[in-house]
Automatic annotation (TrEMBL):
The chain crosses the membrane at residues 7-26, 46-66, 78-95, 115-139, 160-179. Its EC number is 7.1.1.9. It is a multi-pass membrane protein. Belongs to the cytochrome c oxidase subunit 3 family. Residues 1-180 form the Heme-copper oxidase subunit III family profile domain. It comes from Aeromicrobium duanguangcaii. It is an enzyme of class 7 (translocase). This is cytochrome-c oxidase. InterPro entries: Cyt_c/ubiquinol_Oxase_su3, Cyt_c_oxidase-like_su3, Cyt_c_oxidase_su3-like_sf, Cyt_c_oxidase_su3_a-hlx. It is found in: Cell membrane. Its main location: membrane. Keywords: Cell membrane, Membrane, Transmembrane, Transmembrane helix.
Amino acid sequence: MTVGTIVWLASELMFFATLFAAYFTVRSVAPDLWASETELLNIPFATANTTILVLSSVTCQLGVYAAAKGNAAGMRKWFIISFVMGSVFIAGQVTEYAELIHEGLTIQSSAYGSLFYLATGFHGLHVVGGLLAFLIVIARTYAARKFTHEQAVSAIVVSYYWHFVDVVWVALFAAIYIIR
């Protein structure tokens, strides 16, 4: 299961690399568009939202440590906290989208809008996938009579995915919000 997840994450890395390549390619041929469109971004809000997502990797890892010790209750506690933090991140993205759409930045409005929503939207879908994975791992531990090694491995594999999603977001955040 672990090796398969790592191979799958490598393919996901290629997917996001393609989005980054498109983003930087179009940005290089339309720098004036980038200058005007990025003014609409709420960087303090996005920074706070990013902080929440990054900290969810810490709580996720604490859950992994608990799982490695055979502590199902500890793993559930930290994974539930990670789930809540990831959900807050998604709610923050929805809020940001609503504000940007109100400002006129849509997927159809410009090449910048298209790439912004594609990159952040696909990332958001990956976060939702991670949230579902947290729920599955948590539910399996409630359903089982005994916390098993296989359940601990499942928690570790979910953490690989979650950390991957967080690292991708840090790179997206840097590319979209920091690099001008």
